[in-house]
Amino acid sequence: MPLEMDAIVTAFGLTPLDEGTATGEVAGFDVTATHIGMGPPATRAALRRLFDSGEQVDHVMIAGICGGLDPDLPVGTLVNPEILVDHTTGATFRHSPPGSAPMAGKLVTTERVMFDLDLSRRFFADGCIGVDLESAAVAEVCEERGQTWSVYRCIGDRYVDGLLDERLVALSNQDGSANLDEVAKLLAAEPELAARMTQLGKDAANAARLAAEAAVRGLHALAV
């Protein structure tokens, strides 16, 4: 999402080139950040374009927010999973990030945001502590190409808190930006949602910042 891209640009100290790309040098590496949009199809397409471009790629990172599945992990908790799971195919990928940060649990990637409480509970019972829309797709394409990869996620919301629902997800464009016209319509009809939306926005921005900062630490670990 744009807020995740903004957090990455800030944490890495990158220079925006256009609306969706920023570059810079960090820890001796040339770093390029690309806004890929939401969901596995957009993720796969972006990575395949990158690899087919002929550019040298040393390591692929994805950083941003995820949904929390463990009721005991608060919003703002960094997730460093041992295993990534593609919910649609059942494929699993072992996470081997640079550095020595402890890893635990699984991160599951779904095709869309889901509000099935029983499914969320089953994910957690299966060892998944977070859910997102892109990470397993990153692992899939990178492993197809023999490319190393790592994931940096932070919990931005939790299904147990009930702050996010279908109406609010529908306010997002495909690239993750807010559809401001639809936001205005919803708030005009239900002004009491303003406080909830403000809290979700604040939590998401903080989680994106923490995830981006974790990715910077991962980059420095690559340089060792």
Task: Explain what you see.
The chain is 39% helix and 24% strand. By secondary structure, the chain is α/β, with parallel strands linked by helices. It has a single domain, classed as Rossmann fold (3-Layer(aba) Sandwich), CATH 3.40.50. The strands form two sheets. It has a seven-stranded mixed beta sheet, sandwiched between helices. A three-stranded antiparallel beta sheet has the order 1-2-3. Helix 1 (2-12) runs parallel beside helix 7 (193-223) and helix 2 runs parallel beside helix 4. The mean pLDDT is 93.
Keywords summarizing the entry:
Rossmann fold; single chain; 10 strands; alpha/beta; 224 residues
Question: What's the mean pLDDT score?
Answer: 93
Put simply, the count of helices is: 7
> Spans of 5+ residues with little confidence (pLDDT < 50)?
none
Number of domains: 1
* C-alpha end-to-end distance: 30 Å
Strand order of the largest sheet: 5-10-4-9-8-6-7
Instruction: List SSEs in N-to-C order.
Output: HEEEHEEEEEHEHEHHH
* Percent of sequence in beta strands: 15-25%
